[in-house]
Amino acid sequence: MATFLYKLGRLAFRRRHFVALIWVALLTLAGVGAASAPPAGNSSFSIPGTEAQKAFDLLEQRFPGASADGATARVVFKAPSGEKMTDADNKATVQKTVDELADGSEVASVADPYTGNAVSKDGTIAYASVKYDVSGMELEESTKDALEDAAQQARDAGLTVEVGGDALQAVPETGATEVIGIAVAAVVLVITFGSLVAAGLPLLTALIGVGIGVSSITALASALELGSTTSILAMMIGLAVGIDYALFIVSRYRAELAEGREREEAAGRAVGTAGSAVVFAGLTVVIALVGLAVVNIPMLTKMGVAAAGTVAIAVLIALTMIPALLGYAGRRVKPAGAKGRLLGRSRKGEPKPDRPAGQPKANLGTRWASFVVRRPLAVLLLGVIGLGAAAVPAASLELGLPDDGSQPTSTTQRRAYDLLSEGFGPGFNGPLMVVVDAKGSDAPKDAFDDVAGEIKGLDGVVAVTPPAPNKGGDTATITVIPDSKPSSVQTEDLVHAIRDAGGDVEAKTGAETLVTGSTAMNIDVSEKLNDALVPYLVLVVGLAFLLLIVVFRSILVPLKAALGFLLSVMAALGAVVAVFQWGWLSGLMGVEETGPVMSMMPIFMVGVVFGLAMDYEVFLVTRMREAFVHGEKPHQAVVTGFKHGARVVTAAAVIMMAVFAGFIGSSESMVKMIGFGLAIAVFFDAFVVRMAIVPAVLALLGKKAWWLPKWLDRALPNVDVEGEGLRTAAERGSGPDEDRELVRA
Fold first, then answer.
1. CB 24 within 8 A of CB 32
2. Of 537, 422, 531, residue with least CA distance to 485
3. Fewest Cβ atoms nearer than 10 Å: which of 309, 321, 732, 735?
4. Which parts of 353-437 are beta strand (E)?
5. CA atoms of 195 and 693, how far apart (whole Å)
């Protein structure tokens, strides 16, 4: 592989005009496609294989035209102090609002509070339910404006009015902190390279890659039903890996220049060595993201595949466009150790010596690695204990999906949620819909009544509506109001109790009972994700483990990499629980409301963090492996690996943390939580696991770390990540001219 990538790097360096033209053309094509694509339609949230989804599908079949997936809104009214909603003036205001809402072109129905028993017992709060023909993401802006205008007119009449539901669902915004994250990345790159030109290359290529990826997602959003969160997460991950992959190749290029090689040769060798690490690191990220398909949640699968596509683009750009841009940059990219004008240089342009000739000063990475190999056990214990302490809050992890109760208190959705809880009880915000399929029953009506009676006798039930059958009389819906809030354990227990009771009724009457609604759907999603976590871990870690065996030609190094990942991801989950569930530092993170951790968070974090963790493992340990196979002793190989890789890996980690942390400012709670989780996970993995635990373990293992059974060594393909083939060619006397002929051939 190293030889092939070496040829590719030199070819891209020499044919830089052609390479640059291809990528600019792709960016233009993707941009035109995004600009001309129709707006994204309904991003369906289906959960195949769950009871809630089965009931939802049955409703669409048995209740045609009911717009089961249509947007909903609850316009909640509260009377002024000392008044009732049943007072004549207030009643007239509500009636006028209902009439105005009913005139909307996309409105399917509006329920009058006074005819639908939607007034609280004390008479101070009432609500009108609005149902639309299309989903919240498909609603016209004029329809949303009409809803807000109707609510405002009722406010002007003296009532407190808030609007809940998904009709006012907005596209999430990332905020200015995203730009700050990129700015931090730029500063780190300038400090690392000491040159604006060298620092600009990774930023430029990452932005081009993300531009192509996100524009492609936007162009396909309508056809593939991609949600707005998909492009945000693809941007987040694409920016991070795009900058990092380019950073490693540019750094290796400067190191090759420092060894006296010509620029074209240096570009080829940089792509042949660091590019090999980029390919395998990118493969682990792609495996982890595409592996999300095993969960069998279409939305999560689409998010993973879209992000994986952006990562693949980042790899291709790093291997081709970076050497092309290095050709354009020419002498403005200095060899390693030589600083440009930005950070100062000697008169002749040479690096200022820190020590007398022959006594080079050891860099920080070398000094740290030397300390670790002298005290490996102490460093290992300290790192493991520290991560273990950070992981303790993960034992209290509570999973759930967001509802209006998790919105900031400044939003009208949250205020509507609180008013409904005040007037009708906390369970009113999470009603359960029970669907009774009596098609196989001899007495459907009796079956409907039996189910309703069984539910009324359960603990935790406040109200049960009479069964509402369809026109065919073979299916009915029953609405159940719990006495607990939607995200509580009590509501989850009630859902299971209703399903158990439905099983007893089915045995007697032949009628099947299904529980659905947003609350039941959230419960089913959480359980499905929990059940899929172990198989997903086995699949992703297993495939990556095999891949790393090929890369490192070792059994213990990949095993250590996997165990280190588990430590860092558990510590990151503990930090997420502490901030988003317990409320620690919530003000600093902009978390206005604590609550259960997003159900998708653990499995998504496992996928993404594993891929990123393997990035650092590959980039850092391949340098150690390279030194070892070239004759250095195990301890010295660890120090050499840090000498060449620690500075770059540190810069890469800081950049990745800055990019992820930039998304903490998002208005979407899922994006905010993932941004924080990935940023803290990168911190734990890069600076504790890879920088401390990994060298400590390798120092303790010595030569055993690189042991591989002979039969397996013969069976594995030789991918030559260390560039041994390039070294052999150099020893044979193959110069740039001979290599150029090889490329042309």
1. no
2. 422
3. 732
4. 399-400, 432-437
5. 32
